[in-house]
């Protein structure tokens, strides 16, 4: 059995094989050398180099004066990104298997007779092949249309030359589009990095802001505890003084009550001698007890605690005015006021010296 015949069958199999051998950039069959990317997709070296040069404009060709460590390359088939070394596309391996298959395919195609209907025919002249291109109407046509048909007055050119030119132009457009896609992808990556950095920076400033407010809360709690302690100390001192007075008055009341009871009992004494023996001392004790009523007292408003009142309105306004950048603005205002004071002082001194 013939090896080539068994490798390339007839009919649709040939068409399917040809589709597998088409470069996704130039849309033509791979031309030697064929390079294989790390993602296992194949490209013509020329097409791959065009894309690489478009994506890395500062990378020079082989033998150039500018040297770089490498560049980025994105596969046009799967968008997989490859980091090239300093050799660029020339550092990729050749796919010799695909090159050999292309050689066998071309040999097989050249040895086969052209099948009927494989070449497009003219609709006006069914037996004539389309072999020229009308530059005026921009459509392919046949020779009879140029001689006798609708394209007699038109300018024509060989079909193959126009074919190659259009393919080259389309290949260049594809290369530019792929390069543009790479630039768009680069911009997307940069924007994604910008989103990530924005989130990180936002998280950082939020943490810093929270720490500053926590510090402020701690200062307020400490000051609150200090002021409450002062009020409590004042309260304890006043209550201690009042409670001591209450105790003294109770002791005095108890003594007076006992004297009253003793005096009443003396009044009930029927004997004059017995009464007189104790009456004088009892009267003296009552008089001294009456003088004891002049104990200490609290002044008017002693229990008042209004002097512990705080006026925090200006602090509340300052807290409400807290905003980003206010510290710098306040510093600038203070600096401006200091400059104005200095200038005013210099002016006053000058006037005094002049006088």
TrEMBL record:
It catalyses: S-ubiquitinyl-[E2 ubiquitin-conjugating enzyme]-L-cysteine + [acceptor protein]-L-lysine = [E2 ubiquitin-conjugating enzyme]-L-cysteine + N(6)-ubiquitinyl-[acceptor protein]-L-lysine. Residues 23-79 form the RING-type domain. It comes from the Eukaryota. The keyword Translocase does not apply. Residues 325-346 have a biased composition (Acidic residues). Its main location: cytoplasm. GO terms for cellular component: contractile muscle fiber; nucleus. Pfam families: zf-B_box, zf-RING_UBOX. PANTHER family: E3 UBIQUITIN-PROTEIN LIGASE TRIM36-RELATED, TRIPARTITE MOTIF CONTAINING 55. This is RING-type E3 ubiquitin transferase. It comes from Mus musculus (Mouse).
């Amino acid at each position: 059995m013939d090896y080539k015949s068994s490798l390339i069958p007839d009919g649709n199999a040939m068409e399917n094989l040809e589709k597998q051998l088409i470069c996704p950039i130039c849309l033509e069959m791979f031309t030697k050398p064929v390079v294989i990317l790390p993602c296992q997709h194949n490209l013509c070296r020329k097409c791959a180099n065009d894309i690489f040069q478009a994506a890395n404009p500062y990378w020079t060709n082989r033998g150039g004066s500018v040297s770089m460590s490498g560049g980025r390359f994105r596969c046009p088939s799967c968008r997989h990104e490859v980091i090239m070394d300093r050799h660029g596309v020339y550092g990729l391996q050749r796919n010799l298997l695909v090159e050999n298959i292309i050689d066998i395919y071309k040999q097989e195609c050249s040895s086969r007779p052209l099948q009927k209907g494989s070449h497009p025919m003219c609709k006006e002249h069914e037996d004539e092949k389309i072999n020229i291109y009308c530059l005026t109407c921009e459509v392919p046509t046949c020779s009879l249309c140029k001689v006798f048909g609708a394209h007699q007055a038109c300018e024509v050119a060989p079909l193959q030359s126009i074919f190659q030119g259009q393919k080259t132009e389309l290949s260049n457009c594809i290369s530019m589009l792929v390069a543009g896609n790479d630039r768009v992808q680069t911009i997307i990556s940069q924007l994604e990095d910008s989103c990530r950095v924005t989130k990180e920076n936002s998280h950082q400033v939020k943490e810093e802001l929270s720490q500053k407010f926590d510090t402020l809360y701690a200062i307020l709690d400490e000051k609150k505890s200090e002021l409450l302690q002062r009020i409590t100390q004042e309260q304890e001192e006043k209550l201690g003084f009042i409670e001591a007075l209450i105790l003294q008055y109770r002791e005095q009341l108890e003594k007076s009550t006992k004297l009253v009871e003793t005096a009443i009992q003396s009044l009930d004494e029927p004997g004059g001698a017995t009464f007189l023996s104790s009456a004088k001392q009892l009267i003296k004790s009552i008089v001294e007890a009456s003088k004891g009523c002049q104990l200490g007292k609290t002044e008017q408003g002693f229990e008042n605690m209004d002097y512990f009142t705080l006026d925090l309105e200006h602090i509340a306004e300052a807290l409400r005015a807290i905003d980003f950048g206010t510290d710098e603005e306040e510093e600038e205002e203070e600096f401006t006021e200091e400059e104005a004071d200095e200038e005013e002082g210099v002016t006053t001194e000058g006037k005094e010296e002049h006088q």
